[in-house]
Write a structure and sequence with these properties.
The chain has about 425 residues and is α+β, with helices and mostly antiparallel strands. It has three domains: about 10-150, Beta-Lactamase; about 195-280; about 280-425, 2-Layer Sandwich (Heat Shock Protein 90). Helix content is about 55%, strand content about 15%. The chain contains ten helices and eleven strands. The strands form three sheets. A five-stranded mixed β-sheet has the order 6-8-9-11-10. Strands 1-4-3-2 form a four-stranded antiparallel β-sheet, covered by helices on one side. It has a two-stranded antiparallel sheet with strand order 5-7. Helix 5 (about 205-255) runs antiparallel to helix 6.
Length: about 425
């Protein structure tokens, strides 16, 4: 719907303002011609009446009187006697032109025996043939006697200048509106990424109301985050403390007892719950090379006899939370080891302003219908994965932490079999991601 309109509110308002200004100019021009057109035609009729009177006066004078009257007319500048031949008659232009209405009215009201020529170049001028006794002489009307388009031209220029000034003022107004909107959008983005942001107190009452509501929402989210962090800390302490005591008691008896393994699994599950709940809260971002983190993790997996083939392209410095990013890459690589164990590879690349990390394997892969579902917590795929222990939080944690960094997670089948898990992070300008 309205696909021809720009998507930007600023551009939509600009199109609306320009359309309104253009429509106003068309209406103003039409009104101007409607008022001035009859005046130009009336002026042409009056000039024709005067020329007819001059022609009749010459007819009723003696030759000396004609010479004296001719000298009076030319000396006063009312007519200019021309010795040469008149130019070819030209079209005065559109019938809506003031000059055309003047010329046509003048031509229609001249006496039948008086010839008329109109020339537009190099300047508008009218030739009239007047009978002076037995002689027929051509005269030109002085420029002051002609209706020109100059008034209309100057009016048009003034109107266009006013339209430009109005458009400029409207743009400044729109800019004053857009700046707070961009600030709200940026603040909302930073809050969505876990930042602590407050909008300034705007002077305009409408913007001030928006800022108050936004800041109240931000305060509520911060309070909820504090309660959640306190609750997670309590859970971590109250559950892990007895688990640790129980594991120590069992270790003293038999390290490989099944109970010890169960306790380790419970501890790992609790850790995943806490990882999902924390989602990088309170961690400060740094600018670093993601390849360094990938190589560090690959070395740790290689020490566990699960090497990853690395294909690392040069990457610009990326702003990220180190522990959160470590958790993202670790979960993706752990999934590849746990569910595939072969064809393990990590690739990095930089394209179109984004840093990409691909983790690939040659495992059973994931059905296309399950890809979006696996982003949800406590969800696991069916084929080839149900027998592997887990909580179904691994990809949910990855997706949440990737979105916290403004990035995206995608899962796709790998050519030749297996799975390709890819994360992409936008490269932010220095200082632009302080709220990460």
């Amino acid at each position: 719907m309205n696909s021809w309109l720009p998507r930007s509110l600023f551009r939509r308002n600009l199109v609306l303002l320009l359309s309104f200004a253009l429509l106003a100019q068309v209406f103003f021009g039409g009104a101007f011609l409607y008022v001035q057109g009859p005046r130009a035609a009336e002026l042409g009729r009056l000039v024709a009446i005067e020329l007819n009177a001059i022609d009749r006066a010459f007819a009723n004078m003696s030759p000396p009187e004609q010479r004296a009257y001719l000298q009076h007319l030319t000396g006063a500048g009312r007519l200019v006697l021309q010795e040469g031949a008149p130019p070819a008659d030209e079209d005065p232009g559109s019938r809506f032109s003031l000059v055309a209405q003047f010329v046509n009215s003048l031509r229609d009201n001249l006496a039948p025996d008086m010839a008329f020529r109109w020339g537009g170049e190099p300047s508008p001028h009218a030739w009239v043939r007047i009978n002076i006794g037995e002689r027929r002489a051509w005269f030109t009307l002085p420029p002051s006697s002609l209706t020109r388009d100059r008034p209309a031209f100057f009016v048009l220029i003034a109107a266009l200048a006013m339209m430009g000034l109005a458009t400029l003022i409207a743009l400044l107004i729109q800019r004053r509106i857009n700046r707070p909107l961009r600030e709200v959008v940026e603040a909302a983005r930073r809050v969505g990424e876990g930042g602590d942001v407050r909008l300034p107190d705007y002077r305009a009452s409408e913007l001030a109301a928006v800022a108050r509501q936004f800041n109240a929402m931000s305060d509520n989210l911060r309070a909820m985050e504090a309660v959640r962090a306190e609750m997670l800390a309590g859970i971590s302490h109250d559950i892990r403390t007895p688990l640790t005591k129980l594991r120590l008691a069992l270790d003293a008896r038999e390290r490989d007892a099944p109970e010890v393994i169960y306790i380790q699994q419970i501890d790992a599950i609790v850790g995943q719950f806490l990882d999902y709940g924390r989602a990088g809260a309170g961690e400060k971002p740094v600018d670093a090379d993601l390849n360094t983190l990938v190589m560090q993790l690959a070395g740790e997996f290689e020490a566990r006899d699960t090497p990853f083939q690395l294909t690392l392209a040069p990457l610009p410095a990326l702003r990220f939370r180190p522990i959160s990013m470590l958790r993202v890459l670790t979960n993706l690589m752990e999934n590849a080891v746990r569910y595939a164990g072969e064809g393990l590879e990590v690739r990095t690349r930089y394209a179109e302003g984004q840093v990409h990390v691909d983790v690939l394997d040659r495992g059973p892969g994931i059905d296309a219908a399950d890809i979006e579902r696996l982003r949800q917590p406590f969800t696991r795929a069916d084929a080839g994965r149900a027998s592997v222990p887990g909580t179904g939080l691994g990809l949910a944690i990855v997706d949440r932490l990737v979105r916290l960094h403004g990035g995206t997670l995608s899962l796709a089948a790998r050519n030749g079999g297996g799975l390709r898990a890819s994360v992409a992070f936008p490269l932010r300008a220095a200082g632009a991601a302080e709220a990460l």
